[in-house]
Structures are given as structure tokens and as C-alpha cells.
Amino acid sequence: MPTWIESITRSRLWRSFFRHGWPDNPLDRSLVMTSNIFFHLHPVKMNRKSLRVTYSFGLGVMVVIVFGILSLTGLLLMFYYTPAIEHAYSNVVRLQTQVPFGQLLRNLHRWGAHLMVILVVLHMARVFYTGAYKPPREFNWVVGVVLLLLTLGASFTGYLLPWDQLAYWAITVGTSVAGYAPLVGSQARLFLLGGPEIGQEALTRFYALHVMLIPAAIVLVTSLHLWRVRKDGGLAANDAD
Length: 241
Ligand code: HEM
Known about the structure:
Blueprint (H helix, E strand, L loop, with lengths): L2 H8 L1 H6 L8 H9 L13 H4 L1 H4 L2 H19 L10 H10 L4 H28 L8 H23 L4 H15 L5 H9 L6 H32 L10
Bound molecules: protoporphyrin IX containing FE.
């Protein structure tokens, strides 16, 4: 190692950012992995196969990125939207026609939501195709199923918020279907709508679920999911086979 690199990596400034020296030896290489917020998801030693783009296509990571974009655009949409049946639709029309970049903001959120569902399904298909649902990852597969349901729940609850004809009738059909579920059907429908039919109570509930409860649950469950990926030894391609 050239001496100037040595002096930089030994300086107090470098050490305040990075808690390791130049990664040209096994100890510093493993410290790079364990002390970095992004790298520590991976085990210290990895199988080359798991690093190939074509192994996972980075689909899980893409879901995390799209969820980040949805959170940011959703937060900005909250500046213009009121969850009240008299205002919701006109708020959305105003956003699209009068607010600078309003149409772009709304479309980013809407297309992002579609993309997240597609990516989650593709990620699930990849996990299945590579057999990564098998022990010891069967628990993480179940955690993944919870994430799939939460993703679908976020899309479903978001659909009502524009309060246009499409939203109103789609949620009427969706909640009626839920009402036919055995045993808990009518309670589930009542829980979602807050009354016998779609009105202000339903909009308030869908809004609370969409902007608070479901995103908070996605953050929590995704943290558990990623922690399990790490504890199960990284991607399945790392297993000795
Ligand atoms: C919000 C939804 C989800 C997020 C953010 C997410 C995120 C991730 C990430 C970042 C990884 C690491 C590797 C990769 O990129 O593939 C991963 C792995 C994994 N995911 Fe997901 N995931 C989600 C949904 C699901 C679903 C629906 C399933 C299955 C039902 C699932 C099952 C798994 C399993 C078993 C692994 C380990 C894969 C392996 O060892 O090769 N995940 N997930």
C-alpha cells in the first residue's frame, strides 16, 4: 500500500468516518462489511454466485427504493389533500391542474404504487425459483407473505382517496367481496368502512390506514425481513451445496 494511503487511513478524520483501515487484508475487509450500514446486510464472506445481477436481479432492493419514493411523494401529496368527502376530489383536481408539478407528483405516486406491486410479485417469484423459501428461510418466506399483503393493502386503501367514481365503485366492489369471506367477512367489511356503506367514516379509516398504519407496518416488517436475510446467512446462493 502506498504510504500516502496509509497516512490517510490512519488519520483521525478518516477514522471518524470509517472504523477500518484500507481493505487490503482479511481483518479490514471484514470490518468494511460489518461497519457499513448498507454492506452489513451481506455476510462477511459471500459466494460469487450470489453477487451476480442475474441471481436476484436486485428485486428486493428495488422494492425498498420504490417504497422510499412512494413515502416521499406521499408525504408531499399530504400537503394538498384533505380526507373529507366534500374536498377530496376537488383537492386532487386542483393538484393536477393548478399546483406546479402536481400532475407529475400524483403520477409518480400512482405509477410507483403499481410498480411496487409488480416488483414484489417478481421478487417473490425469484425467491421461489431459486428455492430460497426452503429451511432455514421458511420463516422469512412467511414474513415476505405479510409484506405482500401489506403492499396490496396499501394499494387498496390508496385507491379510495381520490374519491372519484372509479375509486368509489372499486372500493364498493372490493369491500363487498371482503364481506363474503367465511366467519369474519361482515366484521372485516364493517371494520374497513366504519358503517354499513362507503362514506366519510370509510374515507377517514382508509386514510389513516394508508398514510400511517400500513407504511409503519411495512417499515417494521421490512426491517425484520432484512435482519432475517442477514441471520439466515445472506442470499440462499451462499449456502454450501
Ligand atoms: C415489501 C416487500 C418486500 C421487500 C421490501 C423485500 C426485500 C427483500 C430484500 C432487500 C432481500 C435481499 C435480496 C434481494 O434483493 O432479493 C429479500 C430477500 C428475501 N425475500 Fe423479500 N422483500 C419483500 C417481499 C417478499 C415476499 C412477498 C416474499 C415471499 C413471499 C419474500 C421472501 C424473501 C426471501 C425468502 C428472501 C431471501 C432470499 C434468498 O436467500 O435468496 N420477500 N427481500
